[in-house]
Write a structure and sequence with these properties.
This protein is of the alpha+beta class. 43% of the residues lie in helices and 14% in strands. A seven-stranded antiparallel β-sheet has the order 4-3-2-1-5-7-6, with helices on both faces. The chain is globular and about 50 Å long.
Amino acid sequence: MTYETIRQQAYEANMKIPENHLALYTWGNVSAFDKDKGVFAIKPSGVPYPDLTPQSMVIIDIEGNKVDGSLNPSSDTPTHAILYKKFAVEKNAEVGGIIHTHSTFAVSWAQAVKDVPLFGTTHADHIQTSVPCTPYLTKQAVETNYELETGKQIIKLFEDRGLNPSEVNMVLCGGHGPFAWGKNADKAVYNGTVLEEICKMALNTLLLNPKAKTLPDYIINKHYMRKHGPNAYYGQK
């Protein structure tokens, strides 16, 4: 079995992390999922972006086992694996790529353990809710299997709040940082970049007006539906 396609997708997506100023050093990773084969390609752990190649991407199954590759996969691999298993496979959500970084503004909200309020139309163009933030992991969860438990906590948050991962494609992990996903690895990077900008805009909004109110529902719905609704008219046919 060959994995050149998802390796290339993962490589190209990972190279956009420094290009989009989403991480310093090696502080981020992207994976690309092949649902038919039940595997994903992910960045190797601790390898600087300039040293990456398509062949250096590591192939993992959705149980988190290494299938192919000579390097150790990202330490966040168990989080990616369980999100693909629960969201893409079991819920059939549109999740074909996942990104995790330590981008400054998204991490700032994660460290504050706060949802990002929906203040404006840039946010509403992408999701119709606040960006959800998980609480801190418990001591037991951290000591059991930190990365796997991170994924489980994201899944629980979505279940508890009734969120659809096909529609809400970004999340913050309390004290940690952002994860985002999309229909493929490239779209995951796009959503991760959008998340960083939303977080920056929201912080600036509160600095300018600490009493800022969230956008009215009728404006939220208009902006979201014109891009994503059944009669969407944004962009070209």
